[in-house]
Amino acid sequence: MRVLFVCLGNICRSPTAEGVFRLELERAGLAHRVEVDSCGIGDWHVGKSPDSRSAAAARRRGIDLSELRARQLAADDFQRFDYLLAMDHDNLEALRAQCPDGCRAHIGLFLDFAGHSDRAVPDPFYGGDQGFEDVLDLIEAAARGLVEAIALRLEGTQR
Ligand code: 4NP
Q1: Is there a contact between 47 and 40 (Cβ–Cβ < 8 Å)?
Q2: Is 95 in contact with 107 (CB distance < 8 Å)?
Q3: Residues classed as catalytic
């Protein structure tokens, strides 16, 4: 199973989602069954480390984002990944616009897995520190829901 988190710049929300989701997979004993990555719709920050405010907020919750580097969404991501999960509606629209015909991946909003139907992870880039804490709260809830959904799918494929 392969999961790709998608935001605009790949330096705040989607790397945070990648780090949080990896930790939740480890806690569930599923890290070896699921491949995880993140990317941005835009190319402004390609090759950069996560935003220092995102990294600091994640570190306070025991999550290390220091190895991650930003990359842009690529055409073959639609074949490679089973889930392409957008942080907000603009990211989702961009994914749908670039999705090739016949693409079988699940493309949707990440927060659907937190039970927040149609809700977005707000872009914290131009705001204050509290925005980064709020992003983490939302992402932690959705990461737990996504682990549960994937665990059920993996159980189904084992039968
Ligand atoms: P992200 O946040 O999409 O969560 O990584 C942003 C990072 C950079 C910019 C916008 C959003 N930017 O405009 O440079």
Answers
A1: no
A2: yes
A3: 7, 13, 123
Name the residue with tokens 């402004």: 44
For residue 12, the tally of other CB atoms under 10 A from its CB is 27
Residue 43 has phi, psi (to 5 degrees) of: -115, 10
Q: Nearest C-alpha to atom 12 of ligand 1 is from which residue?
A: 9
Strand order, beta sheet including 106-109: 35-40, 2-7, 83-86, 106-109
Decide: helix, strand or coil at residue 84: strand
Is 86 close to ligand 1, i.e. is its CB under 6 Å away? no
Å from CA of 35 to ligand 1 middle: 24
Give the Cα separation of 90 and 138 in Å (integer): 18
State pLDDT tens for residues 18-75.
999 999 999 999 999 999 999 999 999 999 999 999 999 999 999 999 999 999 999 9
Q: Can you tell me which atom of ligand 1 is nearest the CA of 8?
A: 3
100: part of which helix (H) or strand (E)? none
3-state secondary structure 23-39: HHHHHCCCHHHCEEEEE
Q: Enter the pTM of the model.
A: 0.97
